Amino acid sequence: MSLLSLDWGSILGGFGLFMFGIKFMGDGLKAAAGDKLKDYINKYTSNRLSALGIGILITIIMQSSSATSAITIGLVRAGLMTLEQAAGIILGATIGTTVTSFLISVQIDKYAMFIIFAGCFLICFRKKLKTIQTGQVLLGFGLIFFGMSAMGDALAALKEMPEFESIALMMSKNPFLALAAGILLTAAVQSSAATIGVVQKLYMAGALSFSASLPFMFGANIGTTMTGILAAVGGTLAGKRTAALHTTLNVISTCFGMILLVPFANLIQAIAGNTNPMMQIAIANIIFKTVTTLMFVPFTTQLVAFVKKIIPGEEPDQLEINIDEMDEEITNILPSAGVYTAQQAILQMVDVVRHNTVETLAFLQDGNSELLEQLNKNEALVNRFDQKITNYLIRLSTKPNLTASDTENVRLSLDGVKNYERIGDLTMNLSEFFDIIRQDGHSISEPAGEEIKTMFAQFLDMFDLCTEVFMTRDPGDYKRLQDMERNLDELEMRYRGHHFRRMAHNEIASPAEESFFCDIIGTLERMGDHACNVAKGAVTGMTSDISDDEIVAQSA
Q1: 200 domain residue, yes or no
Q2: What is the per-residue pLDDT across 398-420, written as a single tens digit (0 to 9) for each?
Q3: Coil, strand or helix: which one is 86?
Q4: Residue 316 covered by a domain
Q5: Do the Cβ atoms of 14 and 149 come closer than 8 Å?
Q6: 379 vs 58, more confident
Q7: How do residues 260-277 score in pLDDT, each as one tens digit?
Q8: Taking the CB of residue 160, how many other CB atoms lie within 10 A of it?
């Protein structure tokens, strides 16, 4: 028998169905649980044990530790997670990925066709979205085991091939050769679960010995870090450190496995020697990854410090991280996390816009040219925010597995970004008016200055409240904001009258004040309008396009 005589159609097709099943099931689970996953990531990564649990949960849902590590690197690159939090999730992912090998070992493939039928039935003959997503999960689940069954039956012929027998014998005598094979295969297919599934089938068929299967499995532990390394290439320092942390953890654990290979193999044979061969590999995988992971948990801080030493450097400003490193890998794997990434970047943009507004008033009062230079730099930062976030949201809106909630949040975020960017532009218009007055060698009269400061204070209160509404979509707060906006309109009209009276009584400090005062207060009023637009979009988006009057009535 030769390599050409193998049933390559069954081997490659079965492997393809297995990989597709993992992805298809993961996509269904993500669509059904995406919002909850996002919340768990946000809320429960504050300590190492909860982060460990989140890593396990996400990986079980994703059916891929590589996908979990890619998401984690993206969140760290986006500044949404610290390296310490990422360490816990990556450790959890190592345990979570053992579930696939366990499921394969219980030989569910006997029922694979029934599971596939159930999944197809739900997808084809049901209209409710959640039911279709459940069907997607079932179909993917069935394909995993059908693919493994088809591949396993064809791989069984390998044991009869003299060429493969000699290779298997070499791997049995030289565990490092099996280790290298596991690394290369996993790096190629980007899935340690797939590699371990192949090992299970080869061992089941008698094509690999147990002593060669374990190093092969250990190699998958290193090969799976390739996805994280690729995700960090060209990224920020934080992203590179996260990938390095993942690689360090897996390399150290693999070294422990290789050093203790013989006693570990004897332990597994003693514990699971009477079970089927695939279960033996599954138990070995679970014990190896669970023990090594738990061994690392107390030393997370030290591991993080070690990674920071091997990849030295200072972290850049948090704002720069969020602008430049909204990783699209997140949108491909978990769109809900992508929506959250964009929202957090918007909040960073909000901080810059508000800071510039406050500093613009300070520029009016002291006319510091260095302050004007900083205002211009911040405005350039806001424009970069606008461009990056808008492009990111547009790409995100094209993802096929967005939930209805995510789609609405993308729309609201796009609307919010444009209004915040316009407030930033109007703030710069104010700084230009103030600069003209400064260059004219004059100042604004005291009454006019007090009126401008009053409108600034009113606008800043509105700005803070509109951002609150943008996040909470509270109709009651929107009603308060509307009242504040009407008050700002009244202030503008009243102060215009005061300005004309000052002109009539020759109480204007300079020609520039005479020319620009109405423009200044008009600009502040327009800024208030944009703040209301942010809040209105958020609230009407939540209440299905009802009118302002109905929103007010609901909040009463």
Answers
A1: yes
A2: 877 777 888 888 888 899 999 99
A3: helix
A4: no
A5: yes
A6: 379
A7: 999 999 999 898 878 888
A8: 14
